[in-house]
Amino acid sequence: MSDKLEIAAVARDDLGKGASRRLRRNADMIPAIIYGAGKDPQPLSIIRKDLEKCLESEAFFSQVIDVNVDGDVQKAILKDLQRHPAKDRVMHADFLRTDEKVALKVNIPIHFINEESCRGVKLEGGIIEHQALEIELLCLPSAIPEYLEVDMADVGLGDSVHLSDVILPAGVESVALSYGEDHDEAIATVIAPRGLKSDEDADDGAAPAAGEVPSAQDEAGED
């Protein structure tokens, strides 16, 4: 588990899009909001460099964070980030307060291990295609895993790893699988390289070798 995650914020009373725009004109600050857990929403301002530093940590996107609002530490998760459509710049951050007794939905990153030694890659010439890089889970805040590990070592060419193959910690549930087996989607597949597929297709449609006698069905098709 990562070290405790925390960020400082200042409560602000000016509301609305105009107030947020004015705050963003100050390149050092970012508008934000914290809400949930039966309490009123509270608009915030956060020092830009502090937030950008926190965003370098993968855990900041899924783990419980201590949001220090003028000395009042509130437990929350990062619920949403709004980015500038043309620039790599955060415009607004949403934090959702957590309640230790209430389960919540969180997206947790997948760490695929042993990809280089994967049987379908190393011995059978395939490549790994990822269908998902995170999984939505339902659990109490105290049970949120930092990441989920998926071992690709024994996955063969043409085989897939599904949601049901992922080992979850106690007290943690896959949201998709809670809807039934029809939602057991693949998260990674070992596929044949594009060039290899083309060669195999060409072999399937190749003409008979010299001296080979065409079948009666082939002759009928020529009439």
From TrEMBL:
Matching InterPro entries: Rbsml_bL25/Gln-tRNA_synth_N, Ribosomal_bL25/Gln-tRNA_synth, Ribosomal_bL25_b-dom, Ribosomal_bL25_C, Ribosomal_bL25_long, Ribosomal_L25_dom, Ribosomal_uL5_bac-type
Cellular component GO terms held in the UniProt record: cytosolic large ribosomal subunit
Chain segments carrying region Disordered: 193-223
Organism domain of life: Bacteria
Pfam families: Ribosomal_L25p, Ribosomal_TL5_C
Gene3D superfamilies to which the protein is assigned, alphabetical: Ribosomal protein L25, beta domain, Ribosomal Protein L25, Chain P
PANTHER family: RIBOSOMAL PROTEIN L25/GLN-TRNA SYNTHETASE, ANTI-CODON-BINDING DOMAIN-CONTAINING PROTEIN, RIBOSOMAL PROTEIN L25_GLN-TRNA SYNTHETASE, ANTI-CODON-BINDING DOMAIN-CONTAINING PROTEIN
Name of the protein described by the UniProt record: Large ribosomal subunit protein bL25
The organism's taxonomic lineage, starting at the top: Bacteria, Pseudomonadati, Pseudomonadota, Gammaproteobacteria, Cellvibrionales
Name of encoding gene: rplY
